[in-house]
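Listing S7. Sequence submitted for prediction.
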Amino acid sequence: MKTVDQLINEAIEREGDYSHHPADRGGPTRFGVTEQVARANGYAGDMRSFPRDRAVAIYRATYWTRPAFDQVAAVSFLVASELFDTGINMGVIVAGGFLQRALNALNRGAVDYPDLLVDGQVGPVTIFALRQFLAKRGSRGEIVLVKALDALQGERYLHLAEIRPANEAFVFGWLSERLGQAL
């Protein structure tokens, strides 16, 4: 089984070093951390010099601990891995919302557990629903849930390209590099 440290290292490897693509609204980025995120976490220097250890700390706090994906990992590391990756690329609220939507769609009309409020906040109610789902569906359900999360992520990438054609520069990479990371 992977660890969060491995997930962070894989994310940094996948994201690469410094970039500043003209079509990327994130602006200057290093190790997948945008300038805005770096500034929000106290970094004031040039993004070309943004240290890797700061990126690691940001990934752990912003995309693992704060959104409670560490608590998801206690139930399913596979699902948490998918949420972590989606959160990096789309935001943790979007990732949490995908989990809630997927769990709602998979609860057999609220027979297995009540529908969740889709607010993107992963808390005790979402964790309870995840536990109930996995208790009912087991390891096969875990794979199906990750596939559902991937499907939601893929649909969002296509939508982003449809509403902003400049995003077409990234769609192929998003789909090839992001989907199926947890599996």
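Caption to Listing S7: primary sequence and predicted structure tokens for the chain studied. The chain is about 65% helix and 5% strand. The mean pLDDT is 92.
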